[in-house]
Amino acid sequence: MTALDLMPSAVRPFLSFPTLLRRNGFAIAPEQTTAFLEAVTLLGPRTVRDIRLAGRALLAPPPERIATYDALFDAHFLGAAIDAVGPPGEADDAIRVQEERSGFDESDLSGEVNEAGEAATGAEVLTTRAFSQADASLPLLRLERELPRRIPLRRGYRVRSARTGPRIDLRRSLRRSIRSDGEVMALFALRRRPRARRVLVLIDVSGSMKERTDTHLRLAHALAQRLPTCEVFTFGTRLTRISRALKLKRREQALATAAGIVSDWDGGTRIGDALQAFLAVPRFAGYARGAIVIVISDGLERGDPAPMQDAVARFARRAWRISWLSPLAIGPGFRPETEALKAVAPLLHDIADASSLEAIVTHILGLSTPRRHHVAIREAHPEGFGGLNERQPTADRERRQP
Amino acid sequence: VAIRASYAGIDGPAAVERAMRQAFYLADDGIATATYLAFALGKPLLLEGAPGVGKTEAAKAVAAVLARRLIRLQCYEGIDASAALYEWNYPRQMLAIRQAGEKAVEIYRDEFLIERPLLEALRNPADAVLLIDEVDRSDHEFEAFLLEFLSDFQISIPERGTLRASERPVVILTSNRTRDLHEALRRRCVYHWIDYPDAERETRIIMLRASSVAERTARAVVKSVGELRRAPLTKPPGIAESVEWAEGATLLNKQGAPWPEAFRRAIGLALKDEEDLRYIAPRIDALIAGAAA
Asked: Nearest-CA neighbor of B84 among B118, B112, B121?
């Protein structure tokens, strides 16, 4: 007996609800729809709350989209008019952390939902952006080709068999010994398999970086395609996670999806606040641990540099290597001019040139070389910094954070 | 898979809620519904939430409700089949080969097989609850393996052939969401996002767990902890931390520390990160005064 037999006429709204969700970017498989119908039948349903909970349990909307799910649910089952599905209003001076939504085209809101006001997202002036359809430029091809063997590695926890190593591969050794009637003639070993370090990219999308954000996102897409654990965030007046959008294979599609999620293009920046907001989400802060952190920003922070300095210090404690790529940092003779960048310089491993894609790619492919401070950092602090950057980090930290 | 409207005497979300309360777990209607549906539909239950919201506790409560033992598999990076499923006892196999001398010996018998949690649950589906804890810590390879295991509850051991569960075991997975789980895994499960409990429920949890704590103290702790969870902390306090903070403060108070002071001195039970303590130090007096009012 299925739910369909039970309620042939009443079943339609339950079947069309998953469709509505799907049209709004929720990924729902047919088997989930079936299970949802079964669940509704099992629960009675005695109340609307039963249906809502059954949907949450079986259609599994991601937690950051629960509000959208509930709004769509109300519109569908209760005929409620909804004003805004976006995040609830917050104080204006707070940086909004914008959780990425699903990996599918969010901007394609159906007419049905626009009626309900799905598109309204609050008071900020938010813009969308179309990306140029430029072909893959040469540096990106080079990045994609060389990244797998140039990316810094860490020791993973999975083991593989090897000729020598600290642990004995009992399974293999025993199997081999059977050939010689249980006499162990050779011992095989296990070694920990190396894994690529996580790369965390933070891209400044404020007005002062306007000319370049397109390039930077294409770079981030190339990284996300090559490195499955890569995490990418954009920041301006908001902090937005776009890692999932960039997992889409086709570049134009991925960039269009990302463009739909990020809503603070070409606005102001509050770098310090954005970085603080990142660290305030424990899940995000975990991404920086033992990772290669790449901040692409001109470091033009207006106002007090203290929050930015504090945030960068906390990043530096977590990260394996932290690079600040600025389009202003041209040539080896570059010296940070702005107060903010001067303040954070001693905390960084590199300040490097981001004036061209070529330069960024060269820097990224060179990440596994020994970390030496940028000339400006060394000159400004000839006596060293005592602590964090003093250690010979590669070998030392490798052991602590395998 | 057969749908069972009543599973082990549990015939609805209300029954789950009642039974879990007897196991000292205060469930809201969301988790009660999800748990009931997982039983009835024979699907695994996936609980996601921030660390410390009581995911593992919920699994323990489910085991208590069904009066089954809990088989726990703690995931970590690099966990593989030999840690999760089975392993041969190589030294004993080796000895058996030696002892047999010239005779033939079967070294892939049960006595040489070491059961790991997944195999144990597969062999005893009717009297165990399988908890796969912190799936998000494992790597993608293991997640794929798990997906296969959870879809038909059968495994193959090359030396022995295929083993299949006689019925679907009750399986609970938890995740702290340190990374996004594969969509297919979410799809296969009954999903529930556990949030921090509301103030009323958390007060009741503290009173239930720590009998020495007065209701006023519990309320004050819940209020301060709520504030702390809104602050930008690396490790926001979970439910266990609230309980301990309330207990610790009560103990200090009994030994003579006056009230606001007792809370402040016991803060180490709620916040366990140096950065967080530094952040909260200048704000703690206002926080406690606000909560006690």
From this structure: B118
Q: How high is the pLDDT of residue B292?
A: 73
Return the structure tokens found at B166.
Answer: 């006689």
Question: pTM of the prediction?
Answer: 0.82
CA–CA distance, B42 with A19 (Å, rounded to integer): 25
Cβ contact B206:A270 at 8 Å: no
- Is B41 close to A38, i.e. CB distance below 8 A? yes
Asked if B41's CB is within 8 angstroms of A39's CB, the reply is yes
Among the partner residues B97, B176, B275, nearest to A182 by beta-carbon distance: B97
Residues facing A350 on adjacent strands: A323
Q: List all residues of chain A from 209 to 238 with a beta carbon under 8 Å from chain B.
A: 228-229
Q: What residues of A are in contact with residue B186 (Cβ under 8 Å)? A: 60
CA-CA distance, A376 to A350, in Å (whole number)?
A: 10
In this prediction, the residues of chain B whose per-residue pLDDT falls under 70 are: 1, 293
* Per-residue pLDDT at B183: 87
A374/A367 Cα distance (integer angstroms): 13
Contacts of A56 in chain B (CB under 8 A): 30, 34, 191-193
Cβ-in-10-Å burial (0-12, 13-18, 19+) of B3 comes to middle
- Which chain A residues are Cβ-neighbours of B76 within 8 angstroms? 157
Is A158 in contact with B183 (Cβ distance < 8 A)? no
> Does the pLDDT value for residue A53 go beyond 90?
yes
pLDDT tops 50 at residue A111: no
Residues 6 or more apart whose CB falls under 8 angstroms from that of A190 comprise: A159, A160, A161, A162, A165, A166, A167, A168, A169
B81: nearest Cα among B119, B111, B45: B119
> Contact at 8 Å (CB) between B175 and B181?
yes
Q: Is A159 on the interface with B (CB under 8 A)?
A: yes
- A313 close contact with B: CB closer than 8 A: no
- CA A28 – CA A104 distance, rounded (Å): 12
SS3 label, residue B248: helix
DSSP characters over B88-115: E-HHHHHHHHHHHTTS----SSGGGEEE
Whole-number Å distance between alpha carbons of B34 and B16: 10
